[in-house]
Amino acid sequence: MRKRGINPFIIFISRKIGFSLATYFIFLTIIFLVPRVIPGNPLATLLAKLYRQAQANPELIRESYRRLMEEFGVGRPLWEQYVDFVCRTFRGDLGTSISSYPCKVAEIIAMNLPWSLGLLIPALLISWTIGNLMGAWAAYRRQTAVDNVLLTVFIVLSQSPYYWLAMLLLYLFAVRMTLFPVGGTYSVGLIPTFSLRFIADYLQHLALPLFSIVLGALGGWAIGMRVLMIYEIESDYIVFSRTLGLPDKKLLSYAFRSSILPQVTGLATSFGTILGGSLITELVFNYQGMGMVLFRALLSLDYPLIQGIYVILALTFVLATMIVDFVYALIDPRIRTGYVGG
Amino acid sequence: MALRLVLEILRIKKAAVSIGVIIFIVLLGFLGPLFYKVDPTEAVGLPERPPSKKYPLGTNTFGQDILARVLHGIRTSLYIGTLAGLIALAIGTVVGAVAGYKGGFTDEGLTLVTKVLYMFPSILLMILIAAYVKYRDPTLVALIIGVTAWPDLALCVRSQILSLKEREFVYLSKMAGYSSIRVIIEDLIPNMLSYIFMYFVLLLAGAMLAEAGLSMIGVGITKGVSLGIVLYWAQAMDAVRRGLWWWFIPPGAILVAVASALLALSTALDEYFSPRLRGE
Questions:
Q1: CA gap B38, B64 in Å, rounded
Q2: How far is B1 from chain A (nearest CA, A)?
Q3: Cβ A295–B217 below 8 Å, yes or no?
Q4: Cα–Cα distance between A71 and B273 in angstroms, integer?
Q5: Could you give the domains of chain A?
Q6: How many other β-carbons are positioned within 10 Å of the β-carbon of residue A173?
Q7: What is the mean pLDDT of chain A?
Q8: B11-33+66-271, what's its fold?
Q9: Backbone angles phi, psi at B137, to 5 degrees
Q10: At A339, is the secondary structure helix, strand, or coil?
Q11: Which of A302, B98, B113, B142 has the fewest beta carbons under 10 Å from its own?
């Protein structure tokens, strides 16, 4: 029965959005603080290095030095730097890269982020679907050989880093069997368009990275689902329904429906971990995404770029959480129909 | 009592196998380098030789012996994993216990901090911190992993404490006028030991994998050899595309084996302590 007052669905969503915004602010603060509170300040080292180079040669370095000083607000009070950093971020100004000066950080990220998402999002959804189905099946066949074998496979997969699975798959299917390209995002010479030819070529390059993340991520989903389902199958209402003579299939669909809810929430909490893993997987395939950019930025101590990447990754992450919350509110009947506690 | 518990756990097949695998790999890491005395950082042979009698796991591009590197790598990775696990365990238990037991404002504050950190993907936070530290020895990397890996545990400990603190024996201690710290240490923690141990096992596995991830993205240890560093160089020197399988398969396989064994052990313990999962 619906209670009077504001729709609980709206309350739920707005509370979640509020929390996400607050979280993003705190993330920005962490991203701002980490470089500035770590003793030994590598930024100073970098500046000194640039300064030495500047004496030997061109204005280019002097110019990038000046910009770096300005953007990182060296010598100004911390709070002033912080306000400046937050304002710049919300204007979309992420600073200027050092290693590929004078490219804007925002431009570099805009060029690479879509490819990362193109890998991450399908991988996440496919692994989630397959993992949950397999986990539910293992729970249904618990205490049998099927469950034992499946559980072992899930455990090993969930503890395999994606990038190592990626190395194995690349070696097996691209190097030994030459079924797939050995890396890259699309064939050299092609221009990214929505033509059929390009999409086919891209999918061919996408297959192995995608498969390694799906394989590495599904174990975790399956283990979680298996435990949830076992608890659900043992619960009183299922046991009672069984005594009433309801068919197994019906019972399983009941159990599955209530077990899937925590797994939807799990999508939000695991997003970050899977994101981190997929960034490293990009390296193995020379896949042109944020992982490659982050790797090069870390290697060349390009601090503005590192900071910019984090600002955007945190945003991606917060947005993903918000979407998951929204979907959760849609599918959870307790929220949808306005059941408020009890 | 403790011995009987260990013996009973060893009777579970899954636990026994996992413990066997873990002990085997620990022995490889600690005794291996004593018996196989090849310097992991010296060029000892021709570059990129496949496994042979002389070099059981072949050599890499720099002519270094891969078996020696893997054995030393196991040792370093185990060290980082254990230390990081202990650090995370200490922080997580203290934060969770204090928040749960004290309640009120302390709880609100600590839980908020924990939840925010829990939201920030720990691997990304580790990379961010490591990026700003110039020289990273194993202890420092363990510290970085340890201080970022605890929020999950803290939330779990907190909820355990919340249910435990309503029990009679805690009331009795409170009535006797014991301090909060004394109640937490004497009454609450001992009741969660099995739980905390299970968690430590998971943290250990997570920390070893995190070390490898940090190394792969280029912010791992800057001195010494770990399993992650072996994988990093295999990746940097394009070992996969050039078919040098003996370079990237062994370190990854050992990492996966030990991490899987640790997870399996924790699952077995979980089933042992909560019989419902066994289906009885």
A1: 9
A2: 29
A3: yes
A4: 55
A5: 27-91 (no CATH), 112-298 (1.10.3720)
A6: 16
A7: 85
A8: MetI-like fold (1.10.3720)
A9: -90, 170
A10: coil
A11: B113
